[in-house]
Amino acid sequence: MRRCIMMPAEFSLYHRFGTIHRRRVLIVLGMILALVFCLVLDLMAGPAGLAIMDILGGIIDPQSLDLRHRIILWDVRLPDALIALAVGAALGLAGIETQTILDNPLASPFTLGVSSAAVLGASLAIVVFPVLPFLPETAILPGMALVFALGAGVLILLIVGWSGGARETVVLFGIALVFLCNALTAGLQYLASAEAVQQIVFWTIGNLTRAGWLEVGLVSACLIAVLPFSLRHVWIMTLLRGGEAHARSMGINVARLRMWVILRISILAAFAVCFVGAIGFIGLVGPHIARLLLGEDHRMLVPGSAICGALILSLASFLSKALIPGIIIPVGILTAVVGVPVFLGLLAGRRKTV
Length: 354
Known about the structure:
The protein has a single domain, classed as ABC transporter involved in vitamin B12 uptake, BtuC, CATH 1.10.3470. 77% of the residues lie in helices and 0% in strands. The chain has helices at residues 8-44, 52-60, 67-101, 114-128, 137-163, 167-191, 194-204, 213-232, 234-240, 244-249, 254-274, 282-294, 298-322, 331-353.
């Protein structure tokens, strides 16, 4: 039997790679622990006075809580906390795929115009309030937001097919779509009543409290359905970071890959924003934080970006209830307040190590 003998240089490189991989695994585990901690904080926030043991006991055995606390935990706090995790993870995953496939560090799901289209659909539902016999009244607004967001994704896919997958065309069309949807939304606000304008503004800045268990299930199902396809392409996406020319030289059909990735991005962004509003910044800063912590290997970067997005939004959800007692601040206002200092701190730390 022949033995494979490693040269000293090969052994050193193998040992270094193993050390880096183990460190990245530990970072991901630490991020998961931080996510669980933020989830518990989010569940504890509020005037009901639920302690951590009450929450854990109420989750394991709901009958251990009195009726009032059981309703607060299961009908109010758990859906709000879990939708923050699902939406944050969906936006974080969509963000890393957008930045990689478009080779643009400033790209996010909002760059493609999907969120702006969702805002237009929601605004139309608020102003016109159409009667749809196959939908209950409470589902009209998120339903129209979802339809418009998915419609924007279909338009982007048509542009990708028409342009042969050129990323400059996709980015420019996305920016044009953002301006068009914003202009049409502004026109609706100009024609709408003051009450309708207030509802549009409130929906636009993002709010987690309108979500229930159905919304949690739909967003989570979307994330679970899309994530395996993203994980399937981790090697190709890592290779793409070396440049399109390099990827093509390795036999990768970049145009086809871009079409499939944009389809995933559109679905994730559409389901993420249609129920809770256009919560910004998560899809931009979450992937950057994950990249600073984990590097460019998409095997770790894809789940890491999803965890970072969920962590930022969960922390913002907690702060929205804890900063001003008795008042819930719309979470969309806090996402930038939470994300920017963390992002700048990581950038400063990385600069010191370079």
